[in-house]
Amino acid sequence: VLELQELVCLKMRNNPVREIPSEIRRLQSLEILCVSFSLLSDLPSGLFELPSLAELDVSHNCLQWLSRDISKLRNLRRLNLDGNQLAGLPSTALSLPLTHLTITDNLMHPLLWADNTRNQPQTLVDISCTVISRCVGSSGDPRLPREIR
Predict the structure, then answer these.
(1) Interval 2-15: pLDDT, tens
(2) Closest Cα to residue 66, out of 7, 134, 112, 130?
């Protein structure tokens, strides 16, 4: 499959796939990738090097964290992370041009966009958002810019 340079859509739904090879980066024309209802516990760095990827469905797997490199997917419009074990999303996901995001049935914390601190400390932006949300509460302060509320 990795030799199919012009491949646009790859659907491997409901297969016992445990790993996506990092060589997936070779599929530069890939626009749709579906690996839902599988056994993935991690997404390879090569996945975030697909310039044409517009739809990614990795729902119902065993993902516990999502790399900050997700922001490299500049054409990603649809992201389905439903039914994983995610505690949050990296703040870099805010820069994605998403039109559809599905994240139900995960282990989300109250502050949705908190970085996963598994291998790295939180960024200053994430810490600031946490402090603001605790001080202001869920209703938001009208004096704050709309992006922060």
Answers:
(1) 889 899 999 999 99
(2) 112
Q: Which helix (H) or strand (E) is 126 found in, with range? A: helix 124-136
As a whole-number percent, the residues of the chain with pLDDT over 90 amount to 62
Q: Give just the sign of the alpha carbon dihedral 72, 26, 84, 76.
A: positive
Dihedral over alpha carbons 93, 95, 72, 18 (to 10 degrees): 20
Q: Which two tokens stand for residue 34?
A: 């579906």
Contacts of 141 (CB under 8 A, 6+ apart): 149
What distance in Å separates the CA atoms of residue 141 and residue 149, rounded to the nearest whole number?
7
Pairwise CA distance, residues 43 & 97, whole Å: 20
| DSSP string covering 25-93 | GG-TT--EEE--SS------GGGGG-TT--EEE--SS------GGGGG-TT--EEE-TTS--S---GGG
